[in-house]
Each structure stands twice: as C-alpha cells, then as structure tokens.
Structures
1.
Amino acid sequence: MSKTEITAFSPRPDRRHPAAAVGTALAIALAGGLVCTIVRLPIPWLLGPMLALFAASKLVRAPLRWPGALRNAGMIVVGYSIGMSFTYPLLAEMARQLPTMLLMSVLLLLVCLIFAVILSRLAGISFPTALTGCIPGGLSQMIVLAEETKDTDLTVVSLLQITRLMMIVLCVPLLVFSPLFHPAGAAPDAASGAGAAAAARAAEWSGLFPNLFAFAAVAVASAWIGQRIKLPTAMMLGPLIGVAAVHLSGFEAPALPYPVLNAAQFLIGGYVGLLLKPDSLTRKTLRTLGLAVASGAALIAAAGGLSWLLRRLHPLSPQTSFLSLMPGGLDQMSLIAHEVGGNMTIVAGYQLFRVLFIFLVVSPLLKLYLHRLRSKERRKPEQEPSVAGRA
C-alpha cells in the first residue's frame, strides 16, 4: 500500500503535536458533517467532512492531520457492508454480466485516452503525464505508477486524479438524488433482492451480537492479508472477499446500523478532504486545474451516456447503471449506491472489475508503453549526429 493511501496531511503538518492536529481535523470534519446534515445535503457524512477539511486546509492556520488508520477503518466497514450482501443468485447475475463489464471498461478507457490527448495539447504537459492522470485506476495506484515513471509529473498527476475524484464525489450525489434519476415507473434492478434485503433489514444494535465479533475478526484479518498480497484497495477489497466468503458459506452476517455506516463515511470523507492542497497550486497548475475540471465534467457526461447503453443491455435502474460506470472509486460509489437505494453489489462488481482490469492489464501495458517511449527519446540524440555526419 502506498504512502498516499496510509496518511493524508495538511499543508502545515506539525510533528510536535500530532494529537492536536488530529483533534482539530476531527472537530472540523464533525462540524462539516453536522452542517451538511442540517441543510440536507446528500450523503452528508461523506461530503461534509470532505468539504470542511478541504476549505480548512487553506483557511485554518492550525496544523491538520488525518491518520490513515481512520480511513482504513472506514474502508473495512464499507467492505464488510458490501460483502454481506453477496448471494449466489447475485454472483450468477454478475457472472452473466462479465462480458458487459469488459466492454464498458474498455469504452470508458478509450474515452479517457481521448481526454488525455486533448489535455496534453491544451495544458502543455507531456502525454504520459496526461494519460496517467486521466486513467481512472484508483488514486493510489496511479500515483504509485507516476512515482515509478521518470517522464511523468507527479504533482500534475495527483492534481488530475484528485480533481476528478473531488468532482465526482461532489457532483454525482447531487445528480443521482435529482429527479433526473428518479423517473416515474422506473424498473427495479435485476437480481437486486439480496442487496435490497440487506438494506431493508432493520439493522438494530441488539441484532449485531454475537455474530459481529466473528465477522469483525474476519474483516480485519482479510484486510491485513489483502494488504500483504498487495490487492488493489486492499482495506476494502480484502474484507469484501473475506466477509462474502463466510456469508456465502451459510453464516449470516448482521446488517450494520446507519450510525456505523455514517461513521465509515466520516472517516473516508475526512481523508479525501485533506488530499488536495490549495497552497500548492501555481499559475500553471491553476490552468491545468481548469482543464481537469472540464475533463471531469466531460467524463461524467460520458459515463452517463455509457450508463444509458448499459441499461439497454441489462435491466438496471438509472442509479445503479450510472454509479457502476462512474470512475469515482469503489468506496465512494458503493456508499452513494447504498444511500440512493441502488444495487450496491452490482455497483461494486463493475467498479471492482474496472479496477482489477486496469491494475492487471492496463497498468502493465502503460508501463511498457512509457518504457518504450523513454527508450525512443534516449535514442534520438544518438541518431542526430550520425545523420549530420553523412550529410
């Protein structure tokens, strides 16, 4: 797991008083969540901490710190909530949709490739930098790839990835909760019985015990194993796989109460809010930021078009198809699907397939391409003198 996944800092970290920096960040995030709850913003405990800490990192002089352990705890909870909703009929439905998952992933990546070409020309940045910044392969994976590639600008890659993530997390909930995605007479999702049942169950505190202790141990152990074997998004994917396996074996996992899910959103939202550092923006990066916002809006529109195609192929609700194709991250899209009443497991399936496809197929190909491009650039100075000598 990369360092970016473990800890997020403010522009003014203070190593002398880390507890005070964490306490300040928690207080600001809590205030943001409460304000967004009062004004009835969608998923307030995800957006509230994120918006509050993003603003505070620029306006508040006190140091801010959000330990990666807090974010990882939220990821484990989200992975648990997704894994407990898996059933055999749902797995069969996901297997049936595998060809569609591949098709949609390839089409979305082609759209991102076009955006990268346009962005590299308009922003005056190298194509490898633009391509690495536009590929929706997960923030941590793309930043690690940029770190390993000499021809990419890590700052610009981080800016592009974080801007897209921030735009999607901010705009997608407003779109999904709008009347645009709630047409009258919309058909329910196919094979959504398990997910709907898990969401509809009265998740009372008294029903958590004693099974919760065993499943919590499974979730934590699976997260640790996933991190050791370097799974993508290990803190979520590990618990998802572990809890789903135990749940499918016949042991029923208890549903989590909404306060627990809200707490998970809080822990993830606070982390995301401190990723983008306004003080690091220069005039050049501000121009790139404007183009990143424009490309993010275009990507949302493209995902909307592909979601229309997906609904023609499978009987999914508008919310589920849209969130399945939105490159905003497995955890954020799954949380939004839970809040909006979509099929959280189908959304997680599409998101997971795209992440694995990029991680296992696209990333190696991209590394090979960048390596050949770098070798080609190194050969150019050697070839030019020989041509001049023959002349």
2.
Amino acid sequence: MNTRQLGFGALAGLAAAMGLGRFVYTPILPLMQEQTGMSPGSTAIVATFNYLGYFLGAFALAIWPRLARSTALLRASLLALVASEVAMVLSVNVPLWSAVRLIAGLASAVVFVYCAGAVAGTAAAGVAFCGVGVGIAASGLLVVGLGEVVGWRALWWVSALATAVFGVFAWRLPPGGPGTVARPDGAAPPRPGIAGWAIGISYFLEGLGYIVLGTFLVAAVAVGGRPWEGPAAWVTVGLAAAVSPLIWARLRRYRSAETLLVIALLLQVVSAVLPALVRGPVSAAVSAVLFGGTFIGAVMLSMEVGARIGVPRSAAVLTTGYGIGQILGPLVVAPMLGDGYDAAFLTAGGVLVAAAVLAAVARWTAPDRVAVGS
C-alpha cells in the first residue's frame, strides 16, 4: 500500500471512529433532548459512558499492545461502531443508551489506536489525522441537511450508513509496526522530574476541559438560536479540525512543542468562555473555529512533549490521564446544566487556564530543553 492509500485509509478510519462513531452524538443531542424530553443531566450521563468506553479501550490496548495491531479487531470494531449507532434508535432509555455508547467508546478507541499506529512515523500521518475533523464535519452536515425534515432516529440511521461507508475504505488498512521511537542522538531519555508531572496533569485537565465543549457546544449554541446554528457550529468545528494538524505541524518548524501547546490551550480557553459571554452566530463561529483548531493540536503536541521529556510509556500514561479527564468532565458540569450552559463553559475555561499554566511549567522545567525555537 503506497503512502497516499495508507493516509486515505487511516483518514477514513479516524473519520468513522471519532467524527462519526464517537462524536456524532454531539450534533444530534439537541434534537434528542427536544423530541424525547431527556434532561441535559441524563444526556451527560450517556456521554460519560462513551468516554468511559474510550478510556477502557485505550487502557486495554496499552496493556496488550498486540491487540492494537490486530486487523480482525479493527474490522470487528468498525462493525461495532455501525451497530452501536443503529442500536440508539431501539428505545428512549438512558441505561440502554449508556451501554450502547460504552461499546461505541471501546470500538472507537481500538480504531483510533490502530489507525494512528498504521501511519506512525510515515509521511501519511498528517493527512490521516485530518480524518477526525472530516468525520466531525460530516456528522454536522448530516444534521444541518436533515435535522429539520427528519427525527433524531433517522439521523442515527444515516450516521450509521455514513460510518459504514468510511469503514469500507479503512477495512484493508495494514497495521503499523511495534513502534518504539528512539532519541535522534541515541542518548538515554532524560528524567522528566517536575516537567513530567506538569505535562501529565496538564493533559488530564485538557481532557476534562475540552470534553465539555465537545459534548455541549452544539446544544449551547442551539439555545435561543435558529435550528441550523447548532449543527452549523459543529460543521465549523470539523472543518477547523480537518486542517489543524497540517497547520500545527508547519508551526512546529519554528517553535517548540511546549510553546505551541501553551498557545493552543490559551486559544481553547477563549473558545470555551466566548459562548458564555457573547451571544449570536458570530461568537459561536469564532468559538467553533478555535475549538476545532486546537483540540487535535493539543493532543499531538502533548504527546510530543511527553515523549521528549522522558515520561515513561508516555503515550499510555498521558492517554490514561486524558481519558479520566473526559470521564469526569460531563459529571463535573452536570449539576450546572439546569439553568443553561454558561456556568459549565466558564468552568471548562478555568480548567483549561490551569492546563495552560502547567504546560508553561513543563516548558520552563523540561530537562534537555531544545534551544532553537523554545
């Protein structure tokens, strides 16, 4: 398989796993609440089970890394994603939805790790990570185009079909290698010290803060606005996320990963607090662009920082903390949702400020700091 085929296959897999299989719940959520009468607190619980599934899947693959290169498991997970979306229409039932979204989380973690491993260290990686944004944009376009003419059940059926289409293109994606990354100079990795703790806690807080926007941005924008504004904001998130990996990779030529991570997190603070402070479609669009343009970048940059400063098993350790943050995020803000989303978004902004401060600490205290661009 050549580089172009590899990149496109991984892009399709990430679009199926993340943009649709995992995050399609976000643009459909306002319609589900309106047409079923489910409270924001109940839908937050459903979201939490999805994040729990993702955490459990990533943690299992960290313990048994061979599973992360299993083509059979990839294909089973793609099928599970489609089945989980179909199962959402069976009943209006929070326990059922929670179980279904737990399975979707597990499956999306498997597909994400497999696809990321398939392109690791290759020229296809930048293109592949654009798939997250492509899938998010696709999920938003489905709701923009169909949300006013069909019910929430029909949207889940259409999203299942779209996930299946992307899954077909990822079906034959070959696995990556075991993938250990050595330092360029061949030296032993430095001891992470304070910087290791700082980046670990920062990434945990990023997971906690960003997931509030990732779960409730569409619902918040839809309150008091026209029906298309919420899904349109999600399309904007997806389009920004689709190009952001290429932008951050280019910026990385001129600045250190630590510096860029601080910038990304501060921009994400703005994306969190803006909808709470300023109403209207312009504010929603700016927030969506900033959110979509930073959350994939924060993942890429945090992983690079953790590996460079010598965090032991950095990918597994950081992903575990990030996953725990995602689980806690909806639970932390659920009691705040009775009177709207402003308090939840301001809380997320505060959490992201703390994440940015700790990323700055990691920058200042990192062992063996890179002099150029730092």
